[in-house]
Amino acid sequence: MKKRVFTIAAALVMTFGTAVTSFAGSWQENGYGRWYQNEDGSYPAGQWKEINRQWYYFDTNGYMVHDRWIGNYYLGFDGAMLTDATTPDGYRVGADGAWIPDSVRPADPNDRKYSAYVYAKEMFSQESSWITPRALRNSLTYQGFSSEETDYAMDASSIDWTLQCVKRIQAYRETSWTDEVMKPYLKEDGFTDAQIDAAFAELG
């Protein structure tokens, strides 16, 4: 265990410059957030700190950071660094908490591409039945995202478009349309030929 803790601490120090381990102290809270008060009355600020075998990061004002990335490490809703887990935005971190390189590192939350991705995921989650590529693309464009930002969001959202095409076909069939009649409309909906063929094959 000591070897593992040292490895994490060393990585954090090399990445962020400062890391300390807590042996005594208590959590405090006010209307702005939470902070950790050391036994001597001081508090960590602009640094990582290990508290009860969990790593936390405190901003320059001393408040605990949560629900965001700090470098290659993700802090959960309770402020603790995630380990051996999938982050809320879908990326893997290892046992030492570091982002796993073979998973795509998310863009900075201030980046327009990332904002487009978040919007696409939220819009998709709100659709109880189905959504088409054209509808999502038009919505992103309406929100003011560029073609490049929209393309990124469409790809990064990892929506199963074949499944969405299946649902669209089922909706068309409820209107008594034949498969041949609906195919041009499926293309207008933004589905590719491969997605359309796969959807029909799945439905049989």
TrEMBL record:
<keyword id="KW-0732">Signal</keyword>
<feature type="signal peptide">
    <location>
        <begin position="1"/>
        <end position="24"/>
    </location>
</feature>
<feature type="repeat" description="Cell wall-binding">
    <location>
        <begin position="45"/>
        <end position="64"/>
    </location>
</feature>
<dbReference type="Pfam" id="PF19085">
    <property type="entry name" value="Choline_bind_2"/>
</dbReference>
<protein>
    <submittedName>
        <fullName>Putative cell wall binding repeat-containing protein</fullName>
    </submittedName>
</protein>
<keyword id="KW-0677">Repeat</keyword>
<dbReference type="InterPro" id="IPR018337">
    <property type="entry name" value="Cell_wall/Cho-bd_repeat"/>
</dbReference>
